[in-house]
Design goal:
CATH superfamily: Jelly Rolls
Order of helices and strands: EEEEEEEEEEEEEEEEEEEE
Number of domains: 1
CATH architecture: Sandwich
Number of helices: 0
Oligomer: single chain
Distance between the termini: 16 Å
Length: about 240
């Protein structure tokens, strides 16, 4: 088993006043040649948007984009005529494919929005753009992982699908237990991102917003040291 540790304070940071953004991998003005992604996972941004602010209309192409709200609600509008809000418990996927434009906005007058945005490189270029979002039953994340995103050709339970052999799972765990995570494919790797709490994997202790990339293994044992919320992204490593 091989690992790479990314501590929370090693992430890139951008503070634009209306937006605070933390970058797990090289993005915009943050460049680290050792952090160009993890396998097919190219971007994991942890964004905090101030009230009545947001991202203006901008383009994307040939990328699978997944948004996961952690607090607040984020309004979405795109060139495919989708106009919806995404809230905690929901997950949004957008296949940019041949190209689209969208905007994201915090409509609240008082509350920040905190959300994760992940970019996963697709298996094929030039697909037809698509958008989907879904509310997940968070009780299915209690002391177990719920798969919320899966490959188009291997849908898992009620997961949203993308154009890549990748999976995104979320789980909320009580302290003082060991959780086994089984990779779907031994050639994949997983990027374990701690949303809250504290866990241990081998001799690595991970706290809030720490991450550990793991590959060349089929199973990972996760020791839950404190009540924890965990995001796991499983991706092809080539």
């Amino acid at each position: 088993m091989k690992t790479i540790l990314h501590k929370a304070d090693s992430r890139g940071k951008a503070d634009h006043g209306w937006l605070k953004s933390y970058h797990s991998f090289s993005f915009a003005n943050f460049y680290d040649p050792n952090k160009m992604g993890f396998g097919q996972l190219r971007v994991l941004n942890d964004d905090i948007v101030q009230p009545k602010m947001g991202f203006g209309t901008h383009p994307h192409q040939n990328m699978e984009i997944i948004s996961i709200p952690l607090s607040g609600a984020l309004s979405h509008k795109d060139s495919m005529d989708n106009k919806r809000a995404i809230t905690v418990g929901e997950v949004q996927v957008m296949s940019a494919g041949t190209g689209l434009q969208h905007s994201e906005f915090n409509d609240s007058k008082t509350d920040e929005v905190n959300f994760l945005q992940l970019w996963i490189q697709p298996k094929e270029l030039g697909v037809t753009p698509r958008y989907e979002q879904k509310q997940f039953d968070q009780s299915k994340q209690n002391n177990q992982f719920q798969t919320v995103v899966a490959p188009k050709d291997n849908i898992v339970e009620e997961a949203l699908w993308i154009h890549q052999d990748a999976y995104i799972s979320l789980g909320n765990f009580d302290a003082s237990q060991t959780v086994a995570f089984q990779l779907k494919n031994a050639a994949h790797g997983i990027y374990v991102f701690v949303l809250e709490g504290e866990i241990a994997i081998g001799d690595q202790i991970l706290s809030q917003k720490d991450a550990l990339g793991i590959w060349e293994t089929e199973n990972v044992a996760i020791d839950i040291k404190e009540d924890a919320k965990i995001l796991i992204v499983e991706v092809p490593m080539n």
